[in-house]
Amino acid sequence: MKNTPIVAPSILAGNHAHLAESEAVIAEHGLAWVHLDIMDGHFVPNLSFGPQTLKDLRAYSGLYFDTHLMLDNPDKYIDAFIDAGTNSITIHVEPDFPKEATLKKIRKQGAHAGISLKPKTPISAIEPYLELVDIVLVMTVEPGFGGQAFEDAMLPKIEAIDQMRRTRDLTFRIEVDGGIDEHTGPRCKAAGADTFVTGTAFFRAKDKDAFLQAFA
Ligand code: DX5
Ligand code: ZN
């Protein structure tokens, strides 16, 4: 059975002095998910925001909080993001920390667990964790900044992960993140993706309902 498509706008591309307004824009267009990009300045060369921001945003919306931890030591922050009210936590496979225990901990605390890989990371790196996750987040740009160009070379990677999902009879979502717009989104969908993070393109789109039609 196929997962229904979900569009998850990233408020990294919103106005950081008014993030609750960015959340409201997402909900106004009938969307259920918001993507929250957390950066530590080590794993990626940028800083964003942390659990306090999520906690305060939680008070303004009932959206599904899809949290993407771009951190060297995400295991140290699971409790903080759970307490802040997130619905999912996605960790990266590249840094050195106890990944299996961290994924199990996320699920044990009642949230969905995700694993992500950078463009240059091979699929073999995430294979041991596929049974432990609800989301595989395929980075389609180098993580760190919004507004970068989608990497076409990620399409075969999405296809291979989709194939693996079928072979192992698993149901995790395949989420794509980076340079996703009304052109690249449908290409990822054809390759097997069902969950679409879109920052710059969503917030810039003048006719957001028309933009969202491309993902339906
Ligand atoms: C990049 C982040 C993305 C980013 C996507 O490190 O993980 O979620 O906000 O932004 P766009 O859609 O602008 O590429
Ligand atoms: Zn992200």
SSE blueprint and pairings:
Elements: E1 6-9, H1 19-28, E2 33-39, H2 51-58, E3 64-70, H3 78-83, E4 88-92, H4 99-108, E5 112-117, E6 135-139, H5 155-167, E7 173-177, H6 184-191, E8 195-198, H7 200-204, H8 208-213
Parallel strand pairs: 1-8, 2-3, 3-4, 4-5, 5-6, 6-7, 7-8
The chain binds D-xylitol-5-phosphate and zinc ion.
Residues 10, 35, 37, 68, 177, 197 line the site of zinc ion.
| Count of discrete structural domains | 1
| Structure summary, number of beta strands | 8
How much helix, percentage-wise, in residues? Answer: 25-40%
Largest sheet, spatial ordering of strands: 1-8-7-6-5-4-3-2
What is the succession of H and E elements? EHEHEHEHEEHEHEHH
What does this structure look like?
The protein has an eight-stranded parallel sheet. With 216 residues, the protein is α/β, with parallel strands linked by helices. The chain is 31% helix and 20% strand. The model has no long low-confidence stretch (mean pLDDT 98). It has a single domain, classed as Alpha-Beta Barrel (TIM Barrel), CATH 3.20.20. Strand 2, helix 2 and strand 3 form a beta-alpha-beta unit. Bound molecules: D-xylitol-5-phosphate and zinc ion. D-xylitol-5-phosphate binds next to strand 2, strand 8 and helix 7.
Give structural attributes.
8 helices; TIM Barrel; alpha/beta; binds zinc ion; globular; single chain; binds D-xylitol-5-phosphate; 216 residues; eight-stranded parallel β-sheet
